[in-house]
Amino acid sequence: MDKKRFIRDVMMTDFQCIDGVTKVSDALKMMKSKRIHAVLIDPRDEDDVYGIMTLKDIARKVIGQRRKLYETHVYEIMSKPVLSVPSNMPLPYSARFLTNFNVSYAMVMEKDEVVGMVSLNGIVNQWDWDQ
């Protein structure tokens, strides 16, 4: 019997949002302590949108360019806007959606509210291999 799985079944609900003026060094300390690989960046005001910063951004845009973690602000290296997906999207479509946009993470939305984050790694790790 085929059991349909959705993003809400595999999303990370323990995601973190931070301010864009946070120093990358502080964000990285928090990410390490919480064992997460990406953080959402809060919008500045009601006309702004969420951003995202990943460990890959830190590696490429700070370490790889010999910038200082404690001098660089998150807003300088984040990606914006963040791709978002509904929590009721079936997993195969969500994997295709993220790969079509060449991103590893997306915000998960329910009723215009961020309720989690989903990653390609999470989708693969939670996939039922007997399907």
Commentary on this structure:
The protein has 131 residues and is α/β, with parallel strands linked by helices. The chain contains 6 helices and 6 strands, in the order H-E-H-E-E-H-H-E-H-E-E-H. Strand 5 (105-110) and strand 6 (113-119) form a beta hairpin. The model has no long low-confidence stretch (mean pLDDT 92).
- The dominant shape is globular
Query: In what order do the strands lie side by side in the largest sheet?
Result: 1-2-3
The helix fraction, in percent, is: 25-40%
Which CATH architecture is right? Answer: Roll
The helix tally amounts to: 6
CATH superfamily: CBS-domain
CA distance, first residue to last residue: 9 Å
Overall structural class, as computed from helix and strand content, comes to alpha/beta
Strand content: 15-25%
* Biggest sheet details: 3 strands, mixed
* Count of discrete structural domains: 1
- CATH C-level class is Alpha Beta
CATH topology: CBS-domain
Query: What is the number of strand segments?
Result: 6
Poorly predicted ranges: none
User: What is the mean pLDDT?
Assistant: 92
Series of H and E elements: HEHEEHHEHEEH
In short:
By secondary structure, the chain is of the alpha/beta class. The protein contains six helices and six strands; from the N terminus they run H-E-H-E-E-H-H-E-H-E-E-H.
